[in-house]
């Protein structure tokens, strides 16, 4: 806020030069500016600058809600001092993902007597610490916690249970089969469950989905309005979630308006779940719905469910046809202005009138998409990835042209083959993937002039990008792409070839993304026609708000053809915080890390590369120069010895000054990769290390 050498004595003091004196701004403007400063800095540092700021930093608008979830510089001493200074003023406290703080830090929360909302997901906390803390928080109404092995509900005091009985919203992440604190929460209106239980223990023993002794108390769902369950892969997670659902099947809450279950793979329907769905069809009207694909495919469930003012639908990986979607869900194309988020990822037939005799690669029916766009005109989040949505040659009916009408879109996920300009490509000879561009093998200065005329601005994808002024999150992912590092399984050694329609998508389409001025998150995966990566430079220059970048399998798989352009791009990404790169034969050397050092805001780096190499000295130098980096994950082709030595050096050199530092350097194809992955903090694993489509993954504002 001020030059380090300048000492401000009074808020009324004036600058000796003609510069602007910050203290002359109104309190309203100063409060707005201060709202962007981490609360720990406000209370522990800025407040001591001058009298005026000392008063403003303690304003209720700044102390009412304290967000520590991505304040990676906070440590146990700062938490202690923060709670001493403003504990009584805090009504909402978010410490989600503060995995580096010891469980003793949680004890200081007892000073926050007026706390209404508390998020401790990802924090180290025992049953006894939880009991001690919650016993003093009589105003608490919203709680998020993890349930780890060793959790014992019998250790919760009567005062703690009294607090839990008043909790209306509970988010619970389970790492062991348990009801957790759900049976104590007798007034629940919103229940969010994340099942992260592994099928095997570290010793290799098979785990059971049966609940532990003393966990037989029945949850209370009578007031439930929102039920959400997200399952990680594994049969144990499925067994445990069925125990939670068993109570719902006996009596469906009358006020239930959102029912969502996200389950990967096959999650078979049982008699109990069928009874639950039948009861829901008779007794409730929903605003949000997501079900496992096996519960929807081949059933007439959707035509019996009733909806009120739906704001979220997810039919991910279902075999619904476009005709079924429009008739059973979209009311025959009638007005659905309330719908703001729609996830159709993996719905290979959702834009076709029927699916019985249709091939996944056949052209879409543009009239179905047009009806969807017209009836859901207020969509803000749309996911059409993991499917072949091929537009016909008819002019004006291209998928990109129809989606351009959705002016309110904030996030969009599309398959690569869907953005191909069919009419334009008919006039071109087919791409020969074995022909290398002449520019490769020598250094070429990449800039605007090298790609501005690669594609006419009238291309359908260029028009789409220019038509979405508010877009913040964009994913362009190959329909057959699969990450080399899936969850709970060995690394994938081979990948499927890209769709034939995707063969022409390359640098020009990437350059078109540069029009999206306010883009914050970008994912590009399996774009086969990337020849130089020149479009990346356009994005770096024009998308100055970009915070998250994920690139995977661009161009030819045997050569990182876009390395020079990537390094040029990174020099302009001053706001970039998260970078994920997945590319075979990637060389993480001195030049790459020197370019990456220009990303002064970078916090998290993940590189996944089969047969990739790294330079240990370059990594050490990069970490020394980039002081904000707290996560470094590299899964490469180096030996286990090289990886372990580098990891130990990084931890030894930087852990003391960066309490949140998380370093994993490990061979990608090593048999123990899954054991290493299980120790990665869930925040990093879920947000960056594992590749997935995140658009419309959950309802908007599911949790604060």
Automatic annotation (TrEMBL):
<dbReference type="GO" id="GO:0019005">
    <property type="term" value="C:SCF ubiquitin ligase complex"/>
</dbReference>
<dbReference type="InterPro" id="IPR001810">
    <property type="entry name" value="F-box_dom"/>
</dbReference>
<dbReference type="Pfam" id="PF12937">
    <property type="entry name" value="F-box-like"/>
</dbReference>
<dbReference type="InterPro" id="IPR001611">
    <property type="entry name" value="Leu-rich_rpt"/>
</dbReference>
<protein>
    <submittedName>
        <fullName>FXL18 protein</fullName>
    </submittedName>
</protein>
<feature type="domain" description="F-box">
    <location>
        <begin position="19"/>
        <end position="66"/>
    </location>
</feature>
<dbReference type="InterPro" id="IPR032675">
    <property type="entry name" value="LRR_dom_sf"/>
</dbReference>
<dbReference type="Pfam" id="PF19729">
    <property type="entry name" value="LRR_FBXL18"/>
</dbReference>
<dbReference type="InterPro" id="IPR045627">
    <property type="entry name" value="FBXL18_LRR"/>
</dbReference>
<dbReference type="InterPro" id="IPR036047">
    <property type="entry name" value="F-box-like_dom_sf"/>
</dbReference>
<dbReference type="GO" id="GO:0031146">
    <property type="term" value="P:SCF-dependent proteasomal ubiquitin-dependent protein catabolic process"/>
</dbReference>
<dbReference type="InterPro" id="IPR047948">
    <property type="entry name" value="FBXL18_F-box"/>
</dbReference>
